[in-house]
């Protein structure tokens, strides 16, 4: 196993440097294009990913890189995975809830992750046998075990309502407190103990693998909708929960006939 502590230290420095790139463009109407999947991409997304790639190649030249904007570079068991701006639509709209995700994988399994919120000045980090932290202070998930008592985030609610209408209707009647959201921040709040559960939809590996490393380091659970571990080939539907009991209850809600 590579030295994860060293990689986490470097990842925090690399994302801090790249955050300055994102913030340079924030609320300045950067040039925006539409990708083949109809999602937007800005010059800030590309410039931020270039910053991260340049730093990784400088410090870890023999390791592969997979990023949202520029695909995969290199072939190696050790791979860095990048989402330079998680929440490009929020970024375009001037909403400060966009994030930056950087993860480190071995044979496709997440071993370490960073969730940085540039406009909020918050950075969450953690990994296998490493503590979960927010701005350097240890964090942990809540002890909530019952969906009836849970603070539940339903991410990508518009997509869920169209593609999984029955599951969506069950979700909006679940939990003690519900919020509709998007992107990585609800997962970070779960790792910090403010949110108990997050159901997410239509994600890519760079959206969920870095996040899962932080959530699990904080004591939480993050899987696909069938309860399987997340991999590079997962279908993009995820369940994040503070406890195994809450996770099991959510799986039942999502998969009820």
UniProtKB/TrEMBL annotation:
Pfam families: Inositol_P
Family: Belongs to the inositol monophosphatase superfamily.
Annotated SUPFAM superfamilies: Carbohydrate phosphatase
Superkingdom of this protein's organism: Bacteria
InterPro entries: Inositol_monophosphatase-like
UniProt protein name: Inositol monophosphatase family protein
